[in-house]
Specification:
By secondary structure, this protein is mostly helical. Helices cover about 65% and strands about 0% of the residues. The protein is globular, with a radius of gyration of 19 Å.
Length: about 220
């Protein structure tokens, strides 16, 4: 596995761009250093990496993701996310604790907002018992990013959304002053309004939500 990550490291270092790195770091509020590889080029390099290593034809590899997560520059975490997105059908119930580790490590919206609706969402779809066993606990967890993940894990469920569960998690977090929680509530409501606008409209009108949540959640409502 070390050899495989060396391939990606070589590709990334050959294409690093100091002029881009500063603005990219600033966009993320200075939380993470960057190599300065913008998304279109990074995606091309990722394609080359996956082709050279054959990773996508092998079993799901958490060790690879952990190696990339532990690297300093943020582009490595983005490649880990790409790898997970391309491996959703391989996920098992036993992978959920690992997803929790990823959510709570090097946490920021750019990683959490992919992990929650994609790998976590898929695991909960394949193994719905994890909702009661684990995700319910996230909804009121002291870690704000786990609360955000609980609110967002059904983001792509559309007509399969468990409406009562979504609203339950939102009610539990409705009084939060955290920007990222208020934003998540609005985002979840906005997405679900594409499937059931009447229900979302009724929920927003019947509950006291932060103005940010209302504004985001009402975007597609008449």
């Amino acid at each position: 596995m070390f050899t495989k990550t060396l391939i990606l490291t070589r590709l990334f270092k050959e294409n690093r761009n100091a002029a881009n790195a500063g603005p990219m770091r600033n966009y993320m509020k200075g939380h993470f250093p960057f190599l300065g590889i913008k998304s279109p080029l990074r995606k091309e390099l990722e394609k080359q990496f996956f082709k050279e290593t054959g990773l996508l034809h092998e079993p799901f590899n958490k060790e690879l993701i952990e190696e990339l997560w532990n690297k300093q520059e943020r582009e490595y975490q983005y490649t880990a996310l790409t790898y997970m997105e391309k491996s959703l059908r391989k996920l098992q119930k036993s992978d959920l604790p690992f997803m929790e580790w990823l959510i709570t490590t090097k946490s920021w919206w750019d990683t959490v907002d992919t992990i929650a609706p994609k790998p976590v969402g898929k695991i909960a779809e394949y193994f719905p018992e994890v909702i009661n066993e684990t995700i319910d606990g996230w909804a009121m967890h002291e870690n704000m990013w786990l609360r955000r993940a609980a609110i967002l894990f059904q983001l792509k469920y559309k007509e399969k959304t468990n409406e009562s569960l979504l609203y339950q998690y939102i009610r539990k977090n409705a009084e939060s002053k955290e920007f990222f929680i208020q934003k998540a509530i609005g985002w979840a409501l906005r997405e679900y309004s594409k499937t059931n606008s009447a229900s979302v409209k009724e929920f927003i009108e019947g509950h006291k939500l932060a103005p940010l949540s209302v504004r985001e959640g009402s975007k597609y409502l008449k």
